Structure formats: structure tokens, C-alpha cells
Amino acid sequence: MAYVSAALVLVGLVAAVNLLLTFGIVRRLREQTAELAALRAGGGAPVMPDNDVAYPAGTPLDQFITTDVDGVAVSSTTLGSRPLVGFFSPHCLPCKEQLPAFVEHARTRPGGRDGVLAVVVGTAEETAEVVRQLRAVARVVTEPDQGQVQRAFGVTGFPGFILVEDGVVAASNFLLGAVAEHDTAAQPAAG
């Protein structure tokens, strides 16, 4: 009889621990669902201290040299004094959602495609459609994950948008709107 009582107490304790863990998981899933809904709705993401996807404003740009999809050399010095840089992954839903806005902003930006760099991460087959959309408005580079251009900008996620002014990051964010506002506000002073 003592064994049965001990077994019942043990099963009860295991069930109680399981219930507590389940409540914790459900709470975390609710938080993540709310964060995802905010991102998809386009209303800014929750403000977090580590929401940068690239080097923060004020960081000097690291040097890099690569070749774009047209076979032309691209480096940190050939982008001009105020390049806009976008990082995309063909498997990233937020990248697909923000791509048309990036193309439109790049199309209306003074200086044409030479002042805009788009970096698409993946294989040639994976990146073909994104490259096709970007090619008319930007110099496009494709590279594997954690390639040299991503490392030069400190990119840790996608999409990533960076505005560089005189070799220093002026703005960076995973939302184009934040960087585009800074870019548009600085254009009359630069133009």
C-alpha cells in the first residue's frame, strides 16, 4: 500500500510540473504571436534594445570588395558618399513584404542605381526573382549567408536597411520606413 501511495504522489508532482511548464509555454507563444502580428501589420515592432539588424548609427563602415551580378566591382569606396543598402533573403517573408517599397524608394532616390546597393543572400536559383526586381534600381550583389558584405555592415538578420553617410552608418533598421525617413530628410541637405 505504501508503494501505491508513493507512486500516486510522484505522478501528482510530475503532473503539476508539467502543468506549470505548459502554462509558461502558452504565455510565451502569446507574446511571440503579438510580436509577429505587430511586424506583419507594419506598425513598428516592439521596441527592444537589441533590435538592430546591422551596425547602429555612428559606426564606421568596414571595408569590402566584391562583384555585382553585372560583373562590376563594388567596394565600400565605390558606393558614393550616401549609399542606401538593403539586405534581403528570398526565404524571408518580411523581405518579400518590404521589397516593393525598397524598389520604389530606390527609384525616386537622387543619384540613381549607383547610390543604392542591394545584397541578396542565397544561391543563384534562390535569388533570381529578387535580383530581377532589384536590378533596375540598384547595384545587386548575391552572396552566401554571412558573406563579406554582410560582415562589413554587421548584418545579423533580414531584411536589413542601412544608410551610410561619408563611410559611417547614419541609420539602420529592419523596417525600411525608419531608414527611408532619415534618407529623405537628409536628401535636400546632400543635394
UniProtKB/TrEMBL annotation:
<keyword id="KW-0812">Transmembrane</keyword>
<feature type="domain" description="Thioredoxin">
    <location>
        <begin position="55"/>
        <end position="177"/>
    </location>
</feature>
<protein>
    <submittedName>
        <fullName>Redoxin domain-containing protein</fullName>
    </submittedName>
</protein>
<dbReference type="InterPro" id="IPR013766">
    <property type="entry name" value="Thioredoxin_domain"/>
</dbReference>
<keyword id="KW-0472">Membrane</keyword>
<dbReference type="InterPro" id="IPR036249">
    <property type="entry name" value="Thioredoxin-like_sf"/>
</dbReference>
<feature type="transmembrane region" description="Helical">
    <location>
        <begin position="6"/>
        <end position="26"/>
    </location>
</feature>
<keyword id="KW-1133">Transmembrane helix</keyword>
